[in-house]
Amino acid sequence: MAANFNAGVIGHPLDSVNLGFVFKSSFSADAPLWRRRTDRPDEVTTSIERQRDDVAIDFPAAFGVGASWRIRSPLTFSADYTRS
């Protein structure tokens, strides 16, 4: 079982501006793969099965920052950056 967490904070130093920060922890997980294929050309059935248990997925830690500016009530400009 893989476990991780995300933590973030958002603030508004001005009424029309929001700033946010996020941190995402790293994690690793096992990913067993299983595949079955069946071919039936000319009524001759051929089945192939494959399985792998040695596959792992590694996600690095990441952090991000973002900002938004509400120019007018229906119009907001926003941008963000995430680094892994």
What does this structure look like?
Helices cover 0% and strands 70% of the residues. The chain is mainly beta and 84 residues long. It has a four-stranded antiparallel sheet with strand order 1-2-7-8, with no helix packed on it. Strands 3-6 form a two-stranded antiparallel sheet. It has a two-stranded antiparallel sheet with strand order 4-5. Strand 4 (33-39) and strand 5 form a beta hairpin.
pLDDT < 50 runs, ≥5 residues? none
What does the largest sheet look like? 4 strands, antiparallel
Spatially, the strands of the biggest sheet line up as: 1-2-7-8
Structural class: mainly beta
Number of helical regions:
0
| Shape verdict | elongated
Query: Rounded to an integer, what's the Rg over CA atoms?
Result: 24 Å
- Helix fraction by DSSP (H/I, runs of at least 4): under 10%
Q: Provide the residue-averaged pLDDT.
A: 90
Distance between the termini: 22 Å
User: Which range does the strand content fall in?
Assistant: over 45%
E-strand count? 8
User: Secondary-structure element order, as H and E?
Assistant: EEEEEEEE
Layout of helices and strands:
Elements (H helix, E strand, L loop, with lengths): L5 E9 L2 E8 L2 E4 L2 E7 L6 E7 L3 E4 L2 E11 L2 E9 L1
Antiparallel strand pairs: 1-2, 2-7, 3-6, 4-5, 7-8
Task: Offer a few descriptive terms.
84 residues, four-stranded antiparallel β-sheet, 70% strand
Give a short synopsis of this structure.
The chain is an all-beta fold. The chain has strands spanning 6-14, 17-24, 27-30, 33-39, 46-52, 56-59, 62-72, 75-83.
